[in-house]
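Morning run. Coffee first, then this:
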Amino acid sequence: MDPLLSKDRDVSSAGVAELISKDLAPPSYVSPSFPGRVQDRTSGEVIATSYILAGSPFAVGAAGYNPAITRPPSPANPMVAGIPWVPGTYTTVAAYLAAHPGVYIPIKDTPAGQQLIDAGVGGEGNVWPLLNTPQLGTHSIQSQERRNAFANGSYEIFDKKMELFGNFLFGQTISQGKLAPSPVSSLGIYNILIPADSPVNPFQIALGSPGGASYPRVRTRFVDSGNRIFDYENELYHFVAGLKGTLEKDYTYEVAYNYNRNDQIAYTRNAINGAALDLATKLNSDPALAALGMSQLTLNGLPVPLYDPFALPGASSPDTIEALRATLYNSGVSELWGVDANVTGMPFDLPAGKIAFAVGGAFYSESLALDLDGLTKLGKVPGLNPAMPTPGGHRDAWAGFIEVRIPITSEEKNIPAFRSLEVTAAGRIESFDPGGDSAVPKVGVRWQPLDKQLTLRGSYSQSFVAPTVYQLFGGSAVSFDYVNFGDNQVQVPMNWVSNAGLKPADAENYGFGFVFSPKFVKGLTVSLDYYHIKTKNDIYRVGAQAVADDLNRYGSASQFAYGFFFQDGSRLTTTAPDQVNGDNWGSGVRPYRNGAQQETDGLDITANYELPTDNYGKFTFFGAANVLFSYRYGDPEIGGPYQYADQFTDTGPAAGSQGTLPKFVCRNSVKMSPL
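And here it is:
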């Protein structure tokens, strides 16, 4: 399947002005990170001002727009568009601009910036989303190829008393997607340091991390490197083998072994090597090469020119861009194997028919291992948060179940309005190591009041969902989350960590409905079922604000103190309040916890019609629909529950995000079975 480009879709192809004219706020793909942007820091009552190079396309139409200014004057470029470099150290953009008038223009003074202000999504202190990344040729729907192979077989060893069976499935998925070139929202976030003595540093103070200043803040994007390309390959192996048969009349057994393995690897091409970027902003140690503007970075053994992160696209050497490119990878292996067995039987008769039962048990074991490239582990990839591998997580589980079907009335008893009535009762117990134990019941009723045309049914059950192996053992990933310290909102690094102490989530379910197969329309079956599901003790991710508040409330006694470090690497050592702020924050942890809740209800509707023909075989027409009445989510961080039905909830902004939950979904199919 070929990709669908984002720019070929109506909304994503629209520019900021067109979006605003349609009363649409710029979506998240309209980025505030673009070449030529720098920003001062908010100080007291003075709100930070964001600037753009006077030659930027986003400055077109502004007073002072000058297309010749494609980079700021610096020691490496002492004269730009007639503006000379004035030696000095500049701790703010405003100070630099006073010495170099005309180089930068405040974004608020540009026509593009004014459009955002008029729409209520711009203004100093806001992010200034201006770059519509779909215009760069990103994928809305990625290209994809799928290949599958399967086999089934069986062999009767002792007639029906023992039969060997097995099946095998292999599936392969290969896909490719494209995202915009790597962004830089802040140098320090990606462990990038531009030294004070770097010739391309117009401010001549150390910027970034480790040890440099956070402001002037550099927000840019490596447009010259091209779109990031994501190549993904997944291989699935599924194997089942076992024995089944009849023990004697009305009794059956089945024992099976199953094995599943999932291998995946993903490559990110055209990423930026942060370690190489450090070298590309430093002069070559050879004075002769330094005099030629060569950096410490090499390509094929030869030094390349300096890279200017403050410049507009096209200002840096193609050789330098090529030397900065990197290919990243992440790979994973997931395995699940197990043995299960069951026995079914109908041991004796009741007045309405035979009682039936099923009893069984299972053992299964699952494991997960993930690995990543070294740059990602070090956090040296602009536009990509640091992440750590999962060296190996393992979980075992044991389960047992029993189910009984009890006939109450039957057709032979000829009881008015109770042609057939039966009750089903079941129970299941499961023990996870780690993960805890759960035992749940189920009861169901099936009733045919008049004849086979109409069947009424209903059920009540309790259930559970065990935490995934990744939630228990997954490696940490770093995010940069917004946290409020008083009136000051700052972005701080957080490690998203797993939790081996998670317990299964519990659920309570009930539903009722009917199946109708009218005699007057032969081959038609229609069903309608109401469902209601309510969970508790669901798994959620603790919020960044909750972590910061708890640290400042309890100090070293905070439940999150174990994973908190100050910027200098020290830890909390006292229970004094309010020790943590945006200036001394180093890193914190956001673990998984139990405690969320979800509740949903709606209708499931199906219709199936079989149409046999004399010459063309049988046609089967099938339709299924879901009508969603409600979907509510809440957790200890956000409160709630909040209504998610008929909404789109995105990962990050919305806890318990579910994507799009439409009020109505319909699926249809037609199948032909030849003669």
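The mean pLDDT is 90. Good start to the day.
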